[in-house]
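Box 3.1 A note on notation
Throughout this textbook, protein chains are presented in two layers. The first layer is the amino acid sequence; the second is a token string describing backbone geometry. Keep the layers aligned when reading.
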Amino acid sequence: MGAAETVIDRNWVADVRAAVLCSLGLLVLVILLDLANGTLGRARLALWAGLSVLLYVVLHPARVTAGPGWLAVRGLVRRRHVCTGLLTAVRHNEGVADRLVLCDSLGNRVELDPQVLVDNPLLLHRLDRGARDAREAGLLRTGCAELHRLTARVDGAAARGVFEASDLR
């Protein structure tokens, strides 16, 4: 499997940069406030640094990659993957943060933000191709509607972009 076959979330670097800048911005702001009040000491500096690191951990985006027959999500600590040709279930959990949950027949499970797939049609295409193979093999019985809704959303956005670019509104 070559690197040219691997598709990577193209917004991940910008999301990491935003997480770093937010964390550093918080750190600088609280240090400046402490300096202005004359209350900055080693203990408070350590507290603010810890808070800044905690904010980065919360904001750090998962890195989504896909290749022929697999999709992987890598967080700060661990990497999880599923074999898309062996998918058994796809669930869309709505809540504070939307999550797409993919399960395969090998017992692997991955959770990701569906917006990553919307923003990266090539990742969605890899997932959809594997899901079609799993559906044809009779493995994927739950979640076909969720994937169809997601691909329709991406296709609609692409069509709108083409119409707007060619002034055919």
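Residues 7-59 form one domain. The chain has five helices and seven strands.
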